[in-house]
Design goal:
The chain has one domain. About 10% of the residues are buried. It contains one helix and seven strands, in the order ββββαβββ. Helix content is about 10%, strand content about 35%. The longest helix is centred in the middle third of the chain and has 12 residues.
């Protein structure tokens, strides 16, 4: 796991997860997980589709009615990285000394530049 101190009380950690994680220290110095930086909005599904999906899993079938012998392809994660992140590097500091932009690279071969100025408050 790699970490980057963005400010005195905020750290971004990367590693086996495909998504940078934000940690913050409270006034006592206790660090805790805040959220993933690259959160994706999940579209709500109806209870009927959830029920049919659960029944399909129960009977070993997918929603399309194929048998359980078939191999399902891996689902895309939808984030910036598709594999673990192996490096995090600061790129731009603000006037107050906090990191404003950084990059990550991973085993998927991608290099992603993250702009923290577009995240209104990363500690929320």
């Amino acid at each position: 796991m790699w970490v980057l101190f963005v400010s005195e009380r905020t750290v971004i950690g990367v590693g086996f997860d495909c998504n940078p994680m934000i940690f913050a220290a409270d006034e006592t110095g206790l660090w805790s997980f805040v959220r993933f930086l690259d959160e994706r909005k999940v579209t709500p599904t109806s209870k009927a589709s959830q029920l049919s999906e659960a029944l399909g899993k129960l009977y070993g079938q997918s929603k399309q009615g194929t048998s359980s012998d078939s191999v399902e392809p891996s689902k895309p994660r939808g984030g910036a990285h598709e594999n673990c992140i192996t490096c995090i590097v600061p790129l731009t500091k603000g006037r107050d000394g906090t990191i404003k932009r950084f990059s990550t690279s991973g085993l998927d071969g991608k290099i992603v530049v993250w702009d923290l100025e577009n995240h209104m408050t990363i500690a929320k």
